[in-house]
């Protein structure tokens, strides 16, 4: 029986890659969305085990302006702000994507978001009222903490989320 090649190869069965094929693959990835260097390294590492080849492709992409960690971080932060995520969660996710602390904090700073207003929006969108007892208030606090808002932002949101001024 003839053995067919599978598109899902194991790492021990990787087909040899050339700079051109790896570059085409990387450009195809970047055409759909921005990737951090760490994410690209991981994706390209699934295609070849040649670290020098991967570094060469990534360097070439950066020189051509096709890949930028700064641009990735800015787009990522804007995306998460539109989902009403808080700064703590966004910072953590950026670090998981391979963006180091200083660059991640710079991207958050550049977004110039009003985290207190964003916390109020997130809370009011999820809950219709502040809650009558401690259990309900704790539920709202956990929600905001899970969204990545700190204690001050949470306290502010709990006191202001349903005020008439927020409707404007």
TrEMBL record:
One GO CC term, this protein: cytoplasm
BP-aspect Gene Ontology terms: regulation of DNA repair
Broad class of where this protein is predominantly found: cytoplasm
Limits of the RecX third three-helical domain: 114-158
Pfam family, one: RecX_HTH1
All copies of domain RecX first three-helical, residue ranges: 24-61
Localisation: Cytoplasm
Entry keyword set: Cytoplasm
Domain RecX second three-helical residues, every copy: 68-108
Function: Modulates RecA activity.
Family per similarity comment: Belongs to the RecX family.
Record-given protein name: Regulatory protein RecX
Organism whose genome encodes this protein: Zymobacter palmae
Organism taxonomic ancestry: Bacteria, Pseudomonadati, Pseudomonadota, Gammaproteobacteria, Oceanospirillales
